[in-house]
């Protein structure tokens, strides 16, 4: 649970967490690897071959998209673990991203999206671009955290307090992210992102519904055909906080994890249905 002193600021943020839209499906046992999944592939790109007739969309080597493709994955067949060490029993994942989930119930749905974005910016040294908004409009800028400022809360508002020595260490960056996860969520992130027409879907884009309930999944790879058709991979975290994982496609006839833009208005994922109009981008 979040600290009681932040409950006023987070009165709406507590409603931002992802939650199911209906009755939970029964637990299922692990199955064989999905179609097109390489047992020994250690990254998104090497684990998931494009569907027949498709090739990966071009991506600048230093782009967010290229970084997402290079995400390290846990060994094939690994389970999704919760922050407390428990194992997720719903078999909705095709692979598990090799990033720590932390030891608190913080890295849920929108948090996973923010985590990946921030990790890329941190790896690129673009510290001044790591910033997320809270429900009161406060901008949590990592560059200030890096300079020794910490986030305090008084009443309805967050504020900066100079209370630590400057440091760019990764451990401090992770503490910054945990603070962001406490105060930001699907509603705040959905307002920070920009709408994207579904036909322009690209790696790094986010399907997101802000509010209560709300959820978010991120596009971690895109493949295209000669006719311009697109297929894409999605990643998510969920409740309670858990490993980020590549989602299976529940509508696939051959078990592939690749998704196609639906002919209708809704995109079905294992634990959430999105409207295709809920696609958003970072604007860069």
Summary, kept brief:
The chain is an alpha+beta fold. The chain is built from 6 helices and 15 strands.
Q: What does this protein structure show overall?
A:
This protein has 6 helices and 15 strands. With 284 residues, it is α+β, with helices and mostly antiparallel strands. The protein has one domain (4-281). A hairpin with a 2-residue loop joins strand 13 (266-269) and strand 14. Helix 3 packs antiparallel against helix 5. It starts with 43 loop residues before the first helix and ends with a strand. The relative contact order is 0.21. Residues 1-8, 10-15 and 20-31 have low confidence and may be disordered.
Question: What labels describe this entry?
Answer:
nine-stranded antiparallel sheet, 284 residues, two-stranded antiparallel ribbon
What's the layout of helices and strands?
Layout: H1 44-47, E1 54-56, H2 64-69, E2 93-96, H3 109-124, E3 131-133, E4 139-141, H4 142-146, E5 149-154, E6 157-162, H5 170-183, H6 186-192, E7 194-195, E8 206-209, E9 215-225, E10 230-236, E11 245-247, E12 259-260, E13 266-269, E14 272-275, E15 279-281
Antiparallel strand pairs: 1-9, 2-11, 3-4, 5-6, 7-15, 8-9, 8-15, 9-10, 10-11, 10-12, 13-14
